[in-house]
Here is the input.
Amino acid sequence: MSKAKILIIEDDKEISRLTAMYLEAEGYCTHIIADGSKAKHSVLATQPDLVILDLMLPGLDGVSVCKQLRQFYLHPILVLTACCDDISEVSLLKLGADDYLTKPVRPHVMLARIENLLRRYQKIVQHVELIQVGKITISTNKQQVSFNGQILPLTTAEYEMLLLLANNAGNIVSREDCCRTLRGITYDFNDRSVDMRISGLRKKLNDDALPYQTILTVRNKGYMLIND
Here is the structure.
């Protein structure tokens, strides 16, 4: 039974082949890509538990890939560096890498680092509540929302509105409940704050043109976040 999914981003075919072979012998499921420009798509498509990232890549270098992935990817990133790479441990950690290994990599050391990173991540995850609705992911402890892999710059009111809808995904949330969540008051027919927040959310979710696909308006009842 596979322990975890690992994405290997490495352009040296022999290194990636041997790395995958060793990890699969240890029970891991692996996927290999050789071009940095394909990293984001591959992470979104395969949802790996850990990424092994070489710094020297065609298409998009490892430093740029690490920055790009850290916009939405919360799992561990283990960077592989050559001895001649002009980048320090501090710089790598600032980029968002969780750990690094210098080539040539010794397999048993790499395995120990991977197991340690996955254990650390699991401990963190136990304290993080994630709500997933379609392409929307809400991290409640960070009060952070991502949509289709991109972090959304939501206002506090928009976040609270989306959280209310997400907790009731697939069900109608009344305008009264929306107003009570936003302002702590009973809904007033003339109060347009709810409409403004919904409108703002729709724009940021690329859902601001009829017919709405993500947040539906249910006439005379309220709003519903589609859960698909």
Observations:
- The mean pLDDT is 86.
- The radius of gyration is 22 Å.
- Residues 162 and 207 are 13 Å apart (CA to CA).
- The first helix runs from residue 13 to 25.
